[in-house]
Specification:
With 299 residues, the chain is of the alpha/beta class. The chain is built from twelve helices and eight strands. The protein has an eight-stranded parallel β-barrel with strand order 1-2-3-4-5-6-7-8, surrounded by seven helices. The protein binds flavin-adenine dinucleotide (FAD). Flavin-adenine dinucleotide binds next to strand 4, strand 7 and helix 12.
Length: 299
């Protein structure tokens, strides 16, 4: 209730105040800002993944602009010899205009990324595009080695999606809970159900031979369970990495790095930070609660 009330007041909040709330989660407005953060995190023993903020493309020109911005990012990563890959949302790269256009854009991006020895993660969006996203991932991984997808443990379908992906060749997966509010018929609603599903999926991914699993969570219980599973199954450090969002649970991040676990930080950046921040808050008012709590904690 409180979170929804905060979200409904968002249009009244001045932009500089939204920036004050959002800035710990956003690497900055420009590629240079983002690369500065990448350098700092690399120096602290963490790798990163860059997410360029943008709205869904509704024209081919917008999709191509998204491609150009990502190409610029991977070129700069290579030039500065940084340890960072990129995370993309297919709807920014044309998915909702035409899947053929999106596939063509992704082929251009992956050709460049492969040439530069980088890796492209396809973020998972809401359930209206799950099928289309996985289909595109399935196509692309036949042609390019450096591409991965994301599965959400809130989704009831994820176990069968993992099984289908494992049957189709080399698989790179990130596992997260899922940020979008979904209906009960497609998604678990209870926190414990989502956690149990996360544990099952993680085991399935390791036992099924996923090449590298991105364990994307800040949930202390899930992090501890993942470490127990890694130790129990003697999973080597090249088969997994923990992944966390910029500005979230830095204490857990620090503990994991000190204990020698690979860790990647997800860095969103771009001029569209305002639209992105308010959209994310509207999509999931629960985040508003975290954000406001953090705002007061840091004063
Ligand atoms: C690297 C990474 C990539 C992701 N990619 C995707 C994706 O492709 N598709 C998708 O649907 N979702 C994605 N997510 C979001 C994810 O699905 C969850 O919504 C988010 O991570 C919160 O779930 P949690 O597992 O951290 O557990 P929660 O129970 O939500 O959080 C555990 C604790 O972490 C802290 N916390 C979590 N989130 C925040 C926040 N935003 N601000 C402040 N504190 C916070 C709180 O202290 C909370 O108690 C990604 C998350 C990460 C870390």
């Amino acid at each position: 209730m409180l979170n929804r009330a905060i979200v409904s007041m968002l249009p009244l909040v001045p932009r500089p105040v939204v920036w004050r709330i959002s800035r710990r989660y956003i690497a900055g407005e420009t590629l240079d800002d983002a690369l500065h953060q990448v350098t700092e995190l690399n120096d602290k023993g963490m790798s990163t993944t860059l997410d360029i903020l943008g709205e869904d493309s509704v024209t081919e020109a917008q999709a191509k602009k998204g491609l150009d911005r990502y190409l610029e990012a991977i070129e700069a990563i290579e030039k500065r010899q940084l340890d960072s890959n990129i995370s993309v949302k297919l709807s920014m790269l044309g998915l909702k205009i035409d899947t053929k256009l999106c596939l063509a854009v992704m082929r251009d991006l992956l050709a460049a990324s492969d040439r530069l020895g980088n890796f492209v993660r396809i973020d998972m969006e809401d359930s209206s595009v799950t099928d289309a996203t996985l289909k595109i991932y399935h196509e692309l991984r036949k042609e390019f080695p450096g591409v991965g997808a994301v599965l959400q443990s809130c989704m009831r379908r994820s176990e069968s999606d993992v099984a289908a992906l494992l049957a189709g060749g080399d698989t790179y997966l990130r596992l997260c809970k899922g940020i979008y509010i979904e209906e009960e018929k497609v998604a678990y609603q209870e926190k414990e159900e989502v956690r149990d599903s996360y544990r099952r999926l993680l085991r399935q991914m390791f036992e099924g031979g996923v090449k590298r699993v991105g364990i994307a969570t800040h949930d202390r219980k899930l992090v501890d369970d993942a470490i127990a599973l890694i130790e129990d199954q003697r999973i080597s450090a090249d088969r997994y990495e923990f992944q966390m969002l910029l500005g979230v649970t830095e204490d857990i991040r620090h503990e994991l790095v000190s204990a020698g676990h690979p860790l990647r930080v997800y860095l969103p950046y771009g001029e569209e930070w305002y639209a992105y921040s308010t959209r994310r808050l509207r999509e999931n008012p629960r985040i508003a609660g975290y954000v406001v709590r953090n705002l007061f904690k840091n004063r």
